[in-house]
Amino acid sequence: MRTLLLSVIVAGLAGSFIAPVTRAEDAPASQPVAKEPVAYAKLKETLPDKFAGLDRKHAAGSKTGMAGMKMSQAEGNYGGEEADAGKSGNISIIDYGGVPGMWEGLAAFTKMELDNDSDTESSKTTKFAGYPAMENFTKASKHSQITIAVANRFLVSVTAEGIPLETIRDAVAKLDFKAMEAAAK
User: Fold this and answer.
1) Of 93, 119, 122, 143, whose CB count within 10 A is highest?
2) In Å, what is the CA distance from 8 to each residue of 20, 21, 62, 168?
3) Do residues 157 and 92 touch, judged by C-beta distance below 8 A?
4) What is the mean pLDDT of the chain?
5) Checking DSSP bridges between strand 143-150 and strand 88-95, what pairing results, if any?
6) Contacts of 64 (CB under 8 A, 6+ apart)
7) How far, in Å, CA of 138 to CA of 120, rounded?
8) Is 78 helix (H, G, I), strand (E, B) or coil?
9) What is the pTM of this model?
10) Cα 86 to chain center, whole Å?
């Protein structure tokens, strides 16, 4: 009972800090409108069978909603055979169309210019297939993360371990961003 009461209090407090979501029919022209997220099954279809030479080992999807805000996600995990030990990858596609205010915060990198490099790591903003992206790479471990903003609603996050950055860049450039955009229409 105490746990249930605590859960209700926390949910109530969380709800009081969440900005209201505006439906298309109620929105003033200047306010972003929540859109129904693409079904996670459609997002899963955009995950490639192979990524950077690694086979997809697992795919999953989900839809989440609370207080009128909804998002969907698909994720693929990639790995190799014994010869590829230490190499792995992950692709996550999240549709934030149902939460426009959150999108604006998460995709803030699309409005900035960044180019940092040191002996140990590098970070920069760039573009993939014309879409704004942020790239981070840790040189010693060959850990890379590339985040791409697609169609003002999808955040595609690619992480990889043990794979050269140039190989990851080439693999990311081959992702079907147009299929994601088409699924949203």
Assistant:
1) 93
2) 19, 21, 24, 44
3) yes
4) 82
5) unpaired
6) 70, 71, 72, 73
7) 6
8) strand
9) 0.79
10) 23
